[in-house]
Amino acid sequence: MRDTLMRVRDLDSPSSQEEDVLPVWLIAGGSGAGAASASATMLVVLAVLGWLTGAGGSESAGVTVAAGLAGWAFAHGAPLRLDQGSVGLIPWLLAHWPLLCAWWSAQRVVPDPEATSPRLRGFGGVRRDVAVAGAAFVAGYALVAALLAVGAHLGGARPSIAFTAFGALLLAALAYLLALLPTYRGHLDALAPRVAWAWREYVPQWVAAAIRPALRATLLTLALGALTVIVAVAVAFPSVTAVYARIGGGVVGATLLTLAQLAYLPTLSLWGASWLAGPGFTLGGGTSVSWGASEPGIIPLIPVLAAAPPPGPMPAWTPIVVAGPVLVGILLGVWCARRADGTWIGRARLTGAAVALYGIVMLVVAVAASGSVGGGRFAHVGVDAVLTALSLTGEVGLAAFVVVGLAGLRLRRTGAGARDRSEPAASPTTTTSTTTTSPTSTKKAVPKKSEPNKAGPKKNAPKKPEKKNAPKKSEDETPGRRLRPRRSKPPQDD
């Protein structure tokens, strides 16, 4: 009886290797939902903290929590609808907080690269476990984001639910890709072999080599714009502190207001870069701040905007600030010259690709750095995206091409000088070798001319048999023609 009970207990209690585990999609979906909830909680805590210290005015606790949720949705690119107008100028630096939370959570659901997994057909041959985990993670994050956007409608600022869900999809997908990067860096064939094959076959090498210099130039342009903003704030520091004193709110209120302004640092950096390039920026309808003059109009009670130049003409030396974009172009030309091959065409096409990519990225950034902060004259605040992108691309591109051209001339002169120095050193050797040769060796063997066949052509000469199944030579195999590269076949899915 005892043996029977022991046998039944062993059957009822599975071993540790046979224990049921949660499916991958459920774990990944829960991680995405947890990342969205954690990042939103932090912003709600900051909003409640400001409300407790009196910086939030006389609003209720529920409205304060809704304001924190609206700020979280706002960080995902969702515009806020107010009673009068809307706010569409997104604080893009604030989006780094939910991105950091999502990236940290996505690292825990990345499948083991050593494990075997089938591949999906029609999706680049990506591993099925990686695709399922990523889709579940993104879906869980976006679902919670939509629910939080619904909760934010209880307050005065109502974010767009559709834009919140779409922004959450993009942010979660980016976080998951960043989590995959350390594992599959340089091993794209193991993750998605068809995508790796298409990249090798259809993307020219000079286009791929132009991506890094273009991104470096973009970051350097924004860094110069941020430096311009910092200098402007330092020059107008008394005016900035006066706005802080007028707003009030104590130490906590001033700290939260400073953090809110820092969230707009990428936007302000693009404004500074646009001012360096020439077009400048606007603070509402009928306003303009550029090289020629400053017409800021009525400035809102935002401390950093008090650093705008006072109304009136700008100094005569102001156009010299174009040296900032020119410096970016010089460095871009140096980077392209180092990565290109030694031919003129190679350097020109790589530089052209880098300048084109730089212009596209700057256009996207300029569009993202503009928007509305209410109704009326504040319906559009920021820069003219097209004019700013064209100005920066023209100035940076012209300087880059000049540097690449000068580098090509320098290399050409260096190569010509090296050949001139090598020719005199080689001439004595050739003369000595020619003088020491024997007279008999200088005589060239004159081939005898073949005499014509006096007997005439043979009438009944046997013909060579023709090969019926002999393969015909293609145009690529004919002598004197350059062989065209043939594309390899894409890898087959498992």
Structural overview:
- The chain is mostly helical.
- It folds into 2 domains: 182 residues, no CATH class; 203 residues, no CATH class.
- Helix content is 59%, strand content 3%.
- The protein contains 17 helices and 7 strands.
- Strands 3-1-2-7 form a 4-stranded antiparallel sheet.
- Helix 14 packs across helix 16.
- The relative contact order is 0.09.
- The N terminus is likely disordered.
Largest sheet: 4 strands, antiparallel
Multimeric status of the protein: single chain
Radius of gyration: 35 Å
N-to-C order of helices and strands: HHHEEHHEHHHHHHHHEEEHHEHH
Structural class based on helices, strands and sheet pairing? mainly alpha
Query: Got a strand count?
Result: 7
Q: What's the end-to-end separation, in Å?
A: 52 Å
Total number of distinct structural domains: 2
Strand content: under 5%
Low-confidence stretches: 1-20, 425-461, 465-485
Q: Helix share of residues?
A: 55-70%
Morphology call: flat
The count of helical stretches stands at 17
- Biggest β-sheet: strands ordered side by side in the sheet: 3-1-2-7
Arithmetic mean pLDDT = 81
Pfam family, one: DUF6350
Keywords: Membrane, Transmembrane, Transmembrane helix
Biased composition (Basic and acidic residues): 463-480
Biased composition (Low complexity): 424-444
Write a concise keyword list for the protein shown above.
mainly alpha; three-stranded antiparallel β-sheet; 7 strands; 2 domains; about 500 residues; four-stranded antiparallel β-sheet
